[in-house]
Amino acid sequence: MALTDLNIEKPLKPLFKTSKDGYEFDVNSFSWKISSNSQQTIVFHNLQKALPIKQLQDLKLALAFYAEFKSPDTVKNINTSIIRFLSYTDEKLISTIGLLNWRTDHLDDSTEHILGKIRGFLAHALDLGYPIISQKEVYELEQLSLKGNPTGVAVAKGCPHSGAFDHIEQQEILNWMLTNFESKTISLTQFSFTLTLMFTGRRPIQIGNLTFGDLIKVKRDDGTFKYNVNFPRAKQRGAKFRELFKKVGVNESLYYTLYNQALLSIKEVEAQLGETLSNDFKKNIPIYLNSKNLNTVSSREEYITKSKRTPDFFFICNTANITTPLFNLMEIKSARLNGDFINVFPRRFRITYATNLRKRGAGEIILAEALDHSSTNHVSVYTQMTGEFVDTLSSAMAESMTPLAQAFQGKLVDADKETFRRKDERSLIRSANAESVGNCGTYTFCPSGFLSCYTCRNFHPWIDAPHKEVLAYLEKKRAKQREFGVSELVISATDITLLAIKQVVSMCENANKDKSALSTVSNIPVEIK
Q1: So what's the architecture of 167-327 in CATH?
Q2: pLDDT (tens digit per residue) in 198-207
């Protein structure tokens, strides 16, 4: 629908522009679709009702420029901020007086950045030749001292709700992911996407914009392989879709997890197009597909045409469709929240990634490089953390946290009743003293060592096994590491194992009490009448 000038009966002529993501839109329409994500559609109904037609038109022309050269999120945020100002104040005009009153009556230190965002846009619009407000009014706004966006508060304060996950929570999340992927509760798409969030610190949009060709495997001179992922860069001014990249080294496991996800997408595209595709063609297939858009084409020629016209057409448009259902499934308790479930969302993984680097001594330059920032302006929050970096578990702490922990994932068994378990040499798990402590539920080879069994869902510890001795062994090992000056960060890597062993010890004690009670009851003489 075209915008109707209130002073002219006929609608304004269409004025077509192309967004940064390759979507054509009419500047004079009531709404703009500027990306594949419907949530980023720009709607002007409220502004059309509130603003004079000349001011509205200048605003839309300036926003159209932003849509051509900036991210859809940036355009959406500016439009939303202006609507917010008008709805809170009932103003019928964008003016310095109205904005100042809004600041006084409705904004505080944590929300002043919204006015700063509007101010920057109005000044830029004036430079572009679209005077939404006058030069004098822009000057008056520029004299204001405004608070910035408080994005680092959760990080700096170590917020358990929205800041970095601690090392125990990280291990719990990873264990949950592995367990539920193995049981096919979650898909490869969900598993691979979340692992990439965890281990690379990339933004969701960067992961969503990957193609098969971005996975790079290089053979070294010694015969081993090096694995890299060429991530498209995000939030780079003036850069087009998949124009700039940064290579990130990954381990073999993550590489092949992404590789297998890519093969799924290739298989889906080949099935839709009805042909086997060349290796060169496969390189450009998104690792995370927009299946709905893929279903609109039926030949390779159509696929190529759509891709050229709209480069992001076949890429997933909203990565929340992958992560939100998964994170809603997670029920992982945290001692920091007194046993409540932790709140999981993508940005926390990025914060955690940076925080872990900072714990290892990374400075601002290294952090900026690792997080794919173009400057160090936004990483200082990680270098200014004042709380304890690592809170390593002591035995006493483990005691109090055991009831909250979900570290042990296996199944406790009574080997006296299931005698075959003691004789099954293939599955026996032995401690450092060569004593049997349980069985493995699978017969696959595992190089991880007996301590890691306590956090594995396939471990079946025996009720009467010497788990207390295992606990003493681990505590002695940690004490010796501390004595030799090993980093607390390294020592804390076994915190989750310590909790799991404590949990098994507690479960065994309770089980033995129940057996003892049952035995006492069975020995009480019964009077037969």
Answers
A1: Orthogonal Bundle (1.10)
A2: 999 899 999 9
